[in-house]
Specification:
Layout (H helix, E strand, L loop, with lengths): L3 E4 L2 E3 L5 E7 L8 E7 L6 E6 L5 E3 L7 E6 L4 E6 L8 E9 L4 E4 L3 E5 L2
Parallel strand pairs: 2-11
Antiparallel strand pairs: 1-3, 3-8, 4-5, 4-9, 5-6, 7-8, 9-10, 9-11
């Protein structure tokens, strides 16, 4: 198991940028997969960006070219750099880590991102 704590959410105008951080309670070096999901009101939780094996990445089509996922293994932290934000990016953003042989999901508490003028 791992504890995940997100930070960096807030209110930003359309076209603006934010950086989210997810700090893990232990080393992330050997975690199977780690990344970001989001859930907007009335919608299902969806994948935003993840590391799959090692440094391979996967992005939702809606964020490709605008969002970048990165990691700092020394700080046990992953980041989501969000540029050119749109109102439809408004959601609670959750950090996820898949642990163990059966990829048990571990979730952070979420951080609110609101894109509005």
């Amino acid at each position: 198991q791992v504890q995940l704590v997100e930070s960096g959410g807030g209110l930003v105008q359309p076209g603006g940028s934010l950086r989210l951080a997810c700090a893990a309670s232990r080393s992330i070096f050997s975690i199977n997969a780690m990344g970001w999901y989001r859930q907007a009101p009335g919608k299902e939780r969806e994948l935003v960006a993840t590391f799959t094996s090692g440094t391979s990445t996967n992005y939702a089509d809606s964020v490709k070219g605008r969002f970048t996922i990165s990691r700092d293994n020394a700080k046990n932290t992953i980041y989501l750099h969000m540029n050119s934000l749109k109102p439809e990016d408004t959601a609670v953003y959750y950090c996820n880590a898949k642990i163990g042989v059966i990829n048990v999901d571990n979730w952070g508490q979420g951080t609110q991102v609101t894109v509005s003028s």
